[in-house]
Input
Amino acid sequence: LVDVAILLFDGLTALDAVGPYEVFRCVPGARISFVAAEPGPKLANGGLELMASHRLDEVANPDVLLVPGGGGVAAVSKDEAILDWIRRVHGQTRWTTSACTGALVLAAAGLLKGVPATTHWRSLEALAALGAQVVNERVVRAGKIITSAGVSAGIDMALTLVGLELGQEMAQTVQLAIEYDPQPPYAAGSPAKAPPAIVERLRRV
Amino acid sequence: LVDVAILLFDGLTALDAVGPYEVFRCVPGARISFVAAEPGPKLANGGLELMASHRLDEVANPDVLLVPGGGGVAAVSKDEAILDWIRRVHGQTRWTTSACTGALVLAAAGLLKGVPATTHWRSLEALAALGAQVVNERVVRAGKIITSAGVSAGIDMALTLVGLELGQEMAQTVQLAIEYDPQPPYAAGSPAKAPPAIVERLRRV
Output
């Protein structure tokens, strides 16, 4: 876990990228590149711009690839330059990962055929339609591919990866550094736990 | 909760800003401004650049002010232009908030004298030295000021604020939208829970 590449694109969900980023950057020696078809500011859902520092062809063999999700996934899933890069890079990674609907991009690149995987709860059917073997868990590991559920699940995914790669003590150190002792004021974070009316309303949006 | 202003500066911790951002931007109608002494890219700890969209004098009366933390807090705490802006804006806000060591900036601005507040566990003593009444909880509300513990605690803070301002149903809707059903693979997210040797090592860093 030295070189981490995080794909950026217009319409990403900022927390999908920044949650795992904050975990990885706490690992001593980690170098994180933000990669895009065109470097420069990428517009996240909601208006924040995150800066992409590297072109695709400048990042060939990261140890970890992270693909975030967001509304921009539909366009990225048809962008052959990005999909080719993902396939090439995946051949070299130690870990290929996604947060939220980033899994749909990995699937579009052909990486998830028959592979156990997950995504945001509203996109589980779309992921299945792309050939993945959908698993309704927060973090799903299949060999070197680790996918995670919606948005905030990327933090759990990244801590899991640090534990697998560098051991429990490093993962616990990072967890304490970012004081990740979650205490949500409500218990509505999954469709199984939220009030059914809220689930239905969000499903229709 | 219509206009949210998030202060950016070089040396911020990205997740301190982006965790609450992701919560606030899921509220229908919310407008979020990223404010800095100089607009443009701000370098977060670890290398990511976040774009500041507004100058201080362009944002005078947000409903919510969020001050993130990070290594850059030392410099920001001596920047009279920023501290003046915080004091002025605080006079108009419905809620004035911080994540992580952003509380030290609120304290430097004179907002926390005798006020119950919290920050990253490693900075609790520094916060007390600035006159705050330190409370060792993850989210601390004192009137319209809400401070939160280290880094990831900003997510819990923002959900708490949405619940207070807009009600439980909206907060639960946002929580489900970002699938915030945390399942950290370890239980090491606070100094009370982490192995003592890890706590001691991080304390010395």
User: Anything to note?
Assistant: The first strand of chain A starts at residue 3 and ends at 7. The two ends of chain A are 38 Å apart (CA to CA).
